[in-house]
Specification:
The protein has 335 residues and is an alpha/beta fold. The chain is built from eleven helices and eight strands. The protein has helices at residues 3-7, 24-40, 61-71, 86-97, 117-126, 144-159, 176-182, 192-199, 222-236, 239-267, 275-308; strands at residues 11-17, 49-54, 75-80, 103-106, 131-136, 168-175, 203-208, 315-319. The two termini are 36 Å apart.
Length: 335
């Protein structure tokens, strides 16, 4: 019996897919080669699998996954009932794999994550680490704008108090114990790269070079990236609310001084009515008030969504070669 079988090191690679018909065949080919190498070296068990998660794709993504499953038992698949977004699709895959795997690696389908880094992640797992983060060694492939905004974001969110790994996205290894810890987090507003460090088990870092997208178009345009960034800030920090409070206090203090100034000018008979100063003050204060109300409203909106306790995903179909469907890995499922 080799070491991996003795330890029960069954690996699942979880790959969320949304309209990935152009890249999926090549992704499956490379993943099969990588899994074969890892199994052959004895690092992982022979009954390890690749789990594709179809996030309500409107193209042929699910048909391709179904064909891959029919042709090779290495490939498993689940299909969500509708598009739920990358974070929810990834969580659905992780919670499904949790019931079968000893360790999981999550990665994107676009082949930008370096598959060779999986070897190092597995090595770290065998050393006793429950979570292994894939961290970009550089951002040479990014445009200046994307590199500047991404680095600035990581620095800002750190200063706001969120525990997040610098230059890490969702390329990571998690042990079964870590996944069971992740399952304890019930929030609807998901930001996994902020939640995972909260689990607290022993963790390590593996650096890698991120590649260009193999085919297809990016599913994360600027608008979605900004939305995810704001999600991370408001999900893990109350400092924006404190900023609103402090801003209001400063403005109130300045207003008191200005009122005293106006009173002195009035008493000395030097007051001159000024339309420009009046309108400027109104617009400035009005803009600050709307900005502050917007921040408060964002937090209230999150409370509203959390209070509904709606399922974060619904699995419509399974493609798994197992005696029974997973009992605790999904929020809601139908055959």
């Amino acid at each position: 019996m080799n070491t991996s079988e003795k330890l029960g090191n069954r690996l699942f690679i979880v790959v969320p897919c949304y309209k990935e018909q152009e890249v999926l065949p090549e992704t499956a080919k490379r993943l099969k080669e990588k899994m074969g190498t890892l199994i052959g070296s004895g690092k992982i068990a022979g009954d390890s699998h690749v789990l594709f998660v179809n996030d309500g794709s409107s193209d042929n993504t699910w048909e391709i996954i179904s064909k891959l499953h029919e042709e090779d038992p290495l490939f498993w698949g689940i299909s969500l009932s509708r598009n739920r977004g990358h974070q929810n699709a990834l969580l659905a895959g992780l919670m499904t794999a949790k019931d079968y795997a000893d360790m999981t690696v999550s990665m994107d389908a676009d082949l930008q994550d370096d598959m060779d880094a999986v070897d190092a992640m597995v090595d770290k797992y065998l050393e006793g680490y429950d979570i292994v983060y894939g961290v970009r060694s550089s951002r040479a492939t990014d445009s200046f704008f994307k590199r500047f905004t991404a680095e600035a974001y990581y620095k800002v969110i750190k200063k706001l108090g969120a525990d997040i790994v610098y230059n890490h996205a969702d390329f990571r290894l998690m042990s079964r114990r870590a996944l069971e810890g992740l399952a304890e987090f019930k929030e609807v507003n998901l930001f996994l790269r902020g939640i995972v460090p909260q689990i607290g088990y022993p963790s390590a870092i593996v650096t890698y070079e991120r590649h260009e997208r193999f085919a297809g178009e990016s599913k994360y345009p600027l608008s979605k990236m900004l939305s995810l960034a704001f999600e991370g800030i408001t999900s893990f920090s109350v400092k924006p609310i404190r900023f609103v409070y402090r801003t209001g206090a400063v403005i109130a203090f300045v207003a008191v001084i200005f009122l005293l100034y106006c009173l002195i000018v009035k008493l000395t008979g030097h007051s001159v009515s000024g339309w420009s100063s009046l309108m400027g003050s109104i617009w400035l204060l009005g803009g600050i008030q709307l900005f502050c109300i917007g921040i408060i409203g964002e937090y209230i909106g999150k409370i509203y969504m959390e209070s509904k306790q709606r399922p974060r995903y619904i699995i419509q179909e399974y493609l798994v070669d197992a005696p029974e469907e997973p009992s605790g890995g999904t929020e809601c499922s139908t055959k």
